[in-house]
Amino acid sequence: MIGKNSIPNKKTGEEIIVHLRRHWFIFFKIFLLFAVLFSLPVVIYYFFNAALPGIYDNPITYPILLVGVFIYYLMTLVFAFTFWTTTYLDVWTITTERIINREQNGLFNRVVSELDLYRVQDVTAEQKGFFATIFHYGDVYIQSAGSKERFVFEQVPNPYSIAKMVQRLDEKAKINHAHEPV
Fold this sequence. Notes:
The chain is of the alpha+beta class. The chain contains 4 helices and 7 strands. The chain has 2 domains: 16-22 and 91-179, PH-domain like (Roll); 28-86. The strands form 2 sheets. Strands 1-2-3-4 form a 4-stranded antiparallel beta sheet. It has a 3-stranded antiparallel beta sheet with strand order 5-6-7. A hairpin with a 5-residue loop joins strand 6 and strand 7.
């Protein structure tokens, strides 16, 4: 497990600058979505009770509806857990030497990519939408010439300051790498 104070294959003298996760508002939107999905059967219950008063008294329809509600809640819980896991476990780490990108692409599929800072070619920050502008979150795109051409920090807080930080670290890493013996 990779924590806040540990990184894979740590190099000598390498220090962690920042760990990034998605902005808190993204998790709040996920919570609101699932709060609505979980309250939906309650709203439907009261709607059917008002429209068809005797529907829940029937010995055949009541168990069928109850099983349907349990299946709905089970599927919603599985979907919520999967969505939360794939969103929360995306972590980006910037160190003095490299960028480490950890993406969760499902419950059992994790991809870890690394990029040396001196190989960065271009850094772009982008904020799209009303909420992203108000709450200061967005995407940071880091272009390289490596096998993974583009690193994307998705929905991170303060994308412009993160992009500037990566650019400064890139310039410093290029100067340090140019002075190293081959």
